[in-house]
Amino acid sequence: LLPEGSTLQLAALADEGYEFEAWWDGETESERSYVLNAPVEISATFVPEVSLEGNALSIVLWPNPSDGFFYVETVAGVQAFVFSPEGRLVYRQDWKESGRKTIDLRGRNAGVYYLHVVKGSMSKVMKLVVK
Fold first, then answer.
1. What is the largest CA-CA distance in the chain?
2. Which of 1, 27, 67, 111 has the largest count of CB atoms under 10 Å?
């Protein structure tokens, strides 16, 4: 048992074929510090990587959480949709070329939004946390 006030350095390391999704408290940074204020059960969620015709659907998102401005590194030929916490479409874009893209949700309410990236019949959903 660690005493109250102890600081833990946490790192979520995914096995091959999986990727980190979130900690038990909703934090989406895979490496972080956590201060123990009470007994807690620490867990992390991992999801299988999505494949497209033998190639990984590689989507890198940062910073997350953010003030509402996100960068996305993606493959070519995808559609991006962002849904509000209530499920309303708040952003849509066709990204025909691979590379760095931006999503600007500044001015929106703080909370968890959902980025849904689609290529053909495959898709991937990622949480966007606006603080």
1. 52
2. 27
